[in-house]
Amino acid sequence: MKKIAFYGKGGIGKSTTVSNIASALVKLGYRVIQVGCDPKSDSTVNHNNGRRIPTVLDIMRDGDTENIEDIVFHSESGVYCVEAGGPVPGTGCAGRGIIAAFEKLEELEVYEKYQPDFVLYDVLGDVVCGGFAMPIRNGYSDELYIVTSGEMMSLYAASNIVQAVNNQKSKGYAKIKGLIVNKKNIENEDETVRKAAEEMNVPVAFVLPRDGIVQEAEKRHKTVVDAFADSDMAKRYLELAGEIANG
After folding, report:
1. The predicted structure's pLDDT at residue 211
2. 10 Å Cβ neighbour count for 170?
3. Could you say which of 40, 46, 142, 189 would form a disulfide bridge with 150 (CB–CB 3.0 to 4.6 Å)?
4. Per-residue pLDDT tens for 29-43?
5. pTM for this structure?
6. Are 8 and 135 in contact (CB under 8 A)?
């Protein structure tokens, strides 16, 4: 089992990227669990026809559960979906909510039951507090990818994440595998990303072109891999999933 965390600035297309990677890994024959670690709880909607599944924290608030099926949902795309969730707005810390959700997944031995080949954590990347750093420490993840573009704010968020990992290397944080560039087609984007990657001392692992078919798939509440399996973009996601699987 390989556990991989994906970070990136909000709005960068991280959840879309992670969902397509998850569907692509399933197409390649792997068993995959995708864990949404954002209080918005929308990481897995494109696996579930736009439906938001109950979150771990919602179930815990409604009365503690010993039933794994209450928090793990097998989607039509073949991906096993979990959403950590967050506190009721204005009542608590979202980072602590992630910690509580992860502890519940451990308590219920979710990974032991489902025996996934890959666990993908989709994590809010603007914040690097203790709770949001949970997926890349304490052995939860083996590897870390950062989704970014050539936009300054997304690269700034990426730099913060790299700094957080580098500052905690001695504590066994996940290994940074590189940047996944989700292109926005802004001016000088390739050069901007290349320079930023050099400054961060992090490789560019993969580049995803900008393609309107991604938005078309999301209108259908599907991943590109599931909605447009023969498209060039689906092939790119399959290529990326293959590199992640073999990396």
Report:
1. 97
2. 6
3. 189
4. 999 999 998 888 899
5. 0.93
6. no
